[in-house]
């Protein structure tokens, strides 16, 4: 017999106001639209107030902020959004970092063009999931188009190539991922799987695993080779892909922050003699700490001769391809089997988007996966060949940037950043208070502050190790003091490729990508450092 249960039998104990409140949160009614318009206006006001600040951050200490985020009970009742927003304006927003400040020139995160902000709203409103066409439809060919445009800028294949591959679901010209880390990982993953693929009875590393693959192919182990300046994302890739960080061979970089080619050739020969499988050789186009660019053309030739996958990590420097004046610095990049480019760095998209590009549109087949309820074989689903499953339509920012900024716009941005870096390098060179630690290749600059008593030794190039250590300490203190004061910001790194030999030296690092930064801002940042050093009497007494 059919038993009929009364709907909501617990209605008496159920708070109807919760139903009303929660359902109204989802309802796209005209009232909701009005509400949102109102909130948008408030948020715009808050955002622009934030964006117009000159200072890089507030000077509140982190422990004091931690004290404000100590509550760990989930609230029983929903608070009104107004109340919630108000709390954000008190505790969160004033103490976030003003990454678009013209005087925040230490990191790779900077100002965004204004059209990115409404696009972020549109992305959330449409809430597409790029894992499959069933949840993305037009966004699938749209994303492929953006990747194709970038691919053509990079590899410059003839039009017929793009006519054939751009919207061909069997081809993968590139992938949109969450950033440079995932892009590097994906590239190494493809290199690993395609170089240890199925052959004869062996079903490939993907099915049989690493141990079986090495045994089948007769290898003793596997390695990735790059310079000592490789980004630490390769440590993650080596770990996750079963290579191990010991398998990450780091060849010393020269004084120009480039890989030593002779050492690379020797290492390749040694690995082969010792039956170590080389999964990839990695070239860097813009090292994270100083912007050095590896000799890509020569590295490509070495990789090609050895039959090894050549990956170029151009997370930062990739957009140099848009500059007629500077593109030559990346000569040979079109020979790379894969290339990483971050859109959230020098393509001026908001945080959370990077790309990996493939020279061979079939390479990513090596990592293809299917599931019967989604990403079906032979479909156009982008999730077939990506590490991530559900994925937002971040490609909106890439596609929009490529159209609303365009080739000439990106060229201007790149050229300007490099020009301003040259200006800053010149100021550093002219100031006895500073020492330039490397001639800038692009728009990253490393230098350091020198206490007065040691300037004559620096001028003569006669610093002892102890004196260098004392300078390290001064620069550490100076960078921390500057960050804490919050008016201006420069990052800090360690370099081992200066005129002082392989000694590790603490360096101040500037990244000049913010189009709002003027020469006066650069002067202000340097003046701030001199003033702080004097004020703190850094290096005053210890020498
Ligand atoms: C920033 C950067 C990465 C990592 O990118 P994320 O987007 O931070 O994951 C990798 N390589 C280089 C050279 C970078 O500059």
UniProtKB/TrEMBL annotation:
Gene3D superfamilies: 3.90.1150.170, Aspartate Aminotransferase, domain 1, Type I PLP-dependent aspartate aminotransferase-like (Major domain). The modification N6-(pyridoxal phosphate)lysine is found at residue 345. One of its GO terms (cellular component) is cytoplasm. GO terms for biological process: carboxylic acid metabolic process. Its cofactor is pyridoxal 5'-phosphate. Coiled coil: none annotated. Keywords: Decarboxylase, Lyase, Pyridoxal phosphate. GO terms for molecular function: aromatic-L-amino-acid decarboxylase activity; pyridoxal phosphate binding. The keyword Lyase applies. SUPFAM superfamilies: PLP-dependent transferases. The keyword Lyase applies. Belongs to the group II decarboxylase family. PANTHER family: CYSTEINE SULFINIC ACID DECARBOXYLASE, GLUTAMATE DECARBOXYLASE-RELATED. This is Putative pyridoxal-dependent aspartate 1-decarboxylase. It comes from Oscillatoria acuminata PCC 6304.
